[in-house]
Amino acid sequence: MTEHPDLPTAAAEPCSHVAGDALSPADPTPGMSRQVALHTESMWSGTVDTEAGAVSGWHHHGDHDTTLYVVSGRMRLESGPGGEIVVEAGPGDFLRVPAGAVHRESNPGDGTSRAVIVRCGSGTPTVNVDGPAPTTDPAASTDTSPDTSPHTSPHTSPHTSPDADRT
After folding, report:
1. Could you tell me the pTM of the whole model?
2. What's 101's domain CATH number?
3. 39-51 as b/e, with b when 16 or more CB fall inside 10 Å?
4. Which of 36, 77, 99, 114 could form a disulfide with 26 if both were Cys (CB 3.0 to 4.6 A apart)?
5. What range does the domain containing 66 cover?
6. Residue 103 lies in a domain
7. Interior angle at CA 35, CA 32 and CA 40, nearest 5
8. Is 14 contained in some domain?
């Protein structure tokens, strides 16, 4: 048997299990129902259910980088300046919400949507805010260089192809 003297003490910490019916209510945001499974100093995991037609309030997740895996239904995220960037996902899709990104979620589908959430970071996992990230005033900009950035429509993100949100 090989010894592992270079492994941290945490290497001996056992794995754990949380039953699906043992989740508890967490982080209220209007329009959504979150349930927490695990919350450590550096990670939060659980589920979110959004009723058909519901739109959440604007919020962000502080220092937490968030990944959502859509289990059922449809999820739409609005983010960016003025909430103008929109991505939509369905069952089997993943969504990423960067730390501090102000956004809101909605369910454009006919049934309740459910996603599994994993957040990595520390501090308060959900901060409700009054509205989207502010837009920049084009008149206040002094940059006259040509725009060479990749263009996105209101229904794509810079990290997806135009067809990526059609599932």
Report:
1. 0.73
2. 2.60.120.10
3. eeeeebbbbbbbe
4. 36
5. 30-126
6. yes
7. 125
8. no
